[in-house]
Amino acid sequence: MPATSPSPTPDASFIQVEKFNYAYGDHQVIFDVDLDLHRQDITALIGPSGCGKSTLLRAINRINDLVDIARVVSGHIRIDGVDIYSPEVDVISLRRNIGMVFQKYNPFPRSIFENAVYGLRVAGVKDKQELEEAAERSLKLSALWDEVKDRLHEPATGLSGGQQQRLCIARAVALQPRILLMDEPCAALDPIATARIEDLIAQLRGQFTFVIVTHNMEQAKRIADKTAFFYKGKLVEYDDTMEIFGNPKLKLTEQYVTGRLV
Ligand SMILES: Nc1ncnc2c1ncn2[C@@H]1O[C@H](COP(=O)(O)OP(=O)(O)OP(=O)(O)O)[C@@H](O)[C@H]1O
């Protein structure tokens, strides 16, 4: 099954996945994926359940290293030219440069403020003014400031689901990462909270390089510059989102985006 992809541009290789093969134990789940993600683009990863989208996403910040049996079989992921699986790479600082937001919003059982500054605390920042400024900046970036500025020291768990997810985005952007990975960020939210997160992603466009796993085709159409369609661990087609949904090159892509493939 040949993969099609847009011709490379000079800035095409910010996140460069090359001949990437990945397995859990003996069970290979990603096969020979080549994918160049563009700096500051919003890229959606789509495909049926189990096709390896989350695994690829979690390989980009090496959070999957935490799974004992997970391993790179062969190939590379480069970020800004650096092979992130090379032994010299400091995984902690790699992850610090890559924010991650999960399907199930997961604020810590602490105050809104402490969630917003969590990454800075871990990084050793102690200065009160610096922490306050960072909290305000990241809560403004995540479009939550106006709703929480008068209750910063109340528990994060008192917020609505959508607010908790925006707090998780605030926590992720506080360290000013270059990349934001999102694994079905709206899957647990109602349509109104979903729309707010999509608006937020649109507002943040250009400030981060987004990679977003979504099952929601309409969402991919609304927010993504580029879309990559995966099937059974292989990249089938990668192109401008309008092309993937309006003019897919391959039959398999067309079947998936028109709901005829599950
Ligand atoms: N921690 C793990 N241990 C073993 N196998 C895993 C693990 N995580 C995922 N897998 C397997 O890897 C394959 C790809 O799963 P992955 O979650 O990456 O797919 P996905 O496309 O994101 O699916 P979904 O849309 O359902 O989240 C599946 O066969 C899955 O069972």
Automatic annotation (TrEMBL):
Matching NCBIfam families: 3a0107s01c2 (TIGR00972)
Matches recorded under Pfam families: ABC_tran (PF00005)
ABC transporter domain residues: 15-257
The organism of origin for this protein: Brevifollis gellanilyticus
GO biological process: phosphate ion transmembrane transport
Superkingdom of source: Bacteria
Gene Ontology, cellular component aspect: membrane
Lineage: Bacteria, Pseudomonadati, Verrucomicrobiota, Verrucomicrobiia, Verrucomicrobiales
Keywords on record: ATP-binding, Nucleotide-binding, Phosphate transport, Transport
Gene Ontology MF term list: ATP binding; ATP hydrolysis activity; phosphate transmembrane transporter activity
The keyword ATP-binding appears for this protein: yes
Name used for this protein in its record: Phosphate import ATP-binding protein PstB
